[in-house]
Design a protein that fits this description.
The chain is mostly beta strands. It has one domain: Immunoglobulin-like (Sandwich), CATH 2.60.40. The protein contains no helices and 7 strands. The strands form 2 sheets. It has a 4-stranded antiparallel sheet, with no helix packed on it. The chain has a 3-stranded antiparallel sheet with strand order 1-2-5, with no helix packed on it. It holds the Pfam family SoxZ.
Length: 104
């Protein structure tokens, strides 16, 4: 997978920061077969980390049942306009992606 992006937005809504993340990834479960009937090996995001101003605020573990191009939406407390939210992931092949956004 070449450089598939993470699309990330963070916005203040009252006292919380709402974060939306779209992670481009095929997320193969290992259960499907190709056109010749051979199993397609499992390949999926397994670890996701979220930071606020460089401090860890959320960690997630994904498995093979998460859908292609996962979308997350969650709220954080303690952020303010201009702070940076970062998201990074690692998949089962060791590939990594990360992105940052400024809270609007």
């Amino acid at each position: 997978m070449a450089s598939a992006p993470i699309l990330l937005r963070a916005q203040l809504q009252g006292e919380r920061t709402v974060v939306r993340v779209l992670m481009a990834h095929e997320m193969e479960s290992g259960q499907r077969k190709d056109g010749d009937g051979r199993p397609i090996p499992a390949w999926h995001i397994q670890d996701v980390a979220v930071t606020l101003e460089g401090r860890p605020v959320l960690t997630l573990s994904f498995g093979p049942s998460v859908s292609k191009n996962p979308f997350l939406r969650f709220a954080l407390r303690g952020g303010k306009a201009g702070d940076r939210v970062g998201v990074s992931w690692v998949d089962t092949r060791g590939e990594r992606r990360s992105a940052e956004a400024v809270i609007a």
